[in-house]
């Protein structure tokens, strides 16, 4: 897709929350919290400009975790008070969700007002939300029905965000890559087939301005061995423009995920590990990228960290300085690959 924009230097969206924002949240004053969120987002945009990112996000600073853009804006889902081992609060669907209003358009307006760099918004995929919030007997007839209702909410939100100037919308479903293994993990509340159908509904836009990308991040790590047929089915049935794939381990499975990708889809390679502070060796990463270039035209590619740096606000994976160094490395790698052609 070299005839349309490629956002070469990408990241998943969530950034380490600054200490001042964390303190303002803990203080419990809504006005002070709102001011701290706005100030933190302004600083995050400035940071991304300095790092020469080709997209900017609000860092998920106004939200508790990567799901909150949806969970905090719909009715029908209840927080149970429990927390999983991943730090994510547990939610349960008690009725089909309905929105209280547009999702994230206020923060999209903030981003478009702060910079001319392409604004990016990340949302949880509806299949992921359905798979993790459906409980038999809790009030919703089936996980598939729940997923379809969420897909309509996410699709409508995506269309509104694009209309407000957002140029890259990423849907994240951390469960999908486990379903591409030769011996796939248990699918949970939503079958693999239903998950594909639900997420396919969410990425469809009737009108898409030039340069807009709808991306799908199907997980943070490739399985040990990829079932090529299942991978091809994923890409064929979920019509995302860009696939954000893990590429930080140098495993044959990561290359297999790339081999299954159709030629007409962009790819964003997660070449830098967002979970460890040590910086990768540039020559090692470039060797991996060269191998990717033998499979996929790098004109239709981008680079990013492997995942978000703080998908749960209270559980950042790195410090702010370690995060900065990782983002600098992503920018450096992009210039090794494409020079100044972005």
Structural write-up:
47% of the residues are buried. The protein is globular, with a radius of gyration of 19 Å. It is built from 11 helices and 9 strands. With 342 residues, it is of the alpha/beta class.
Précis, in short:
With 342 residues, this protein is α/β, with parallel strands linked by helices. It has helices spanning 19-27, 30-50, 68-71, 105-114, 126-133, 143-163, 192-202, 228-237, 252-259, 282-293, 320-338; strands at 55-56, 74-83, 89-99, 118-124, 168-172, 213-217, 242-246, 266-272, 301-305.
Span from first to last CA? 15 Å
Report on the biggest sheet: 7 strands, parallel
Q: Which overall shape is indicated by the principal axes computed on the Cα atoms?
A: globular
The low-pLDDT segments are none
How are the strands of the largest sheet arranged? 1-4-5-6-7-8-9
What is the arithmetic mean of pLDDT?
94
Structural class: alpha/beta
Compute the number of strand runs: 9
Strand content: 15-25%
Radius of gyration: 19 Å
List the total number of helices.
11
Approximately how much helix is present in the residues? 25-40%
Order of helices and strands: HHEHEEHEHHEHEHEHEHEH
